[in-house]
Here is the input.
Amino acid sequence: MSTGYAAKTIKRSFEKEGVTGEVTRLLEVIIEYPYLLLIDSKEKAIEKYKLQVLAGLIKSAENQENKVSLYLNKSGKTISLGKIGGRQVKGFLRLFESNEIIGKFDENTDLIGNYLYVLTV
Here is the structure.
């Protein structure tokens, strides 16, 4: 699985004689380190309520330091979810403990199992 890029969407509305709609364009962005990658699979599907809690974590992380990037891989596609503060990593890992999580500290350092907690500050 390649984790070198993530997709972000840009939505634009348009109107043209008799045609109205919205266009979505995908952009590739370089993944920022350190990061945590959630993998949504049939065996370990991510529950909707967890994503709602995660949205609140990301929103509350705006003023925190030592941010960790979050990505979601579903059906072989990786998208950026946002960033959480280092102090929120422990809560994030508890929330998604039944799901598959891969972490990377930098390009050469994988974080697996208890080593994911290295990102907590």
Remarks:
- The longest strand covers residues 5-16.
- Helices lie at 48-60, 89-95.
- The chain has one domain: 31-119.
- The first helix runs from residue 48 to 60.
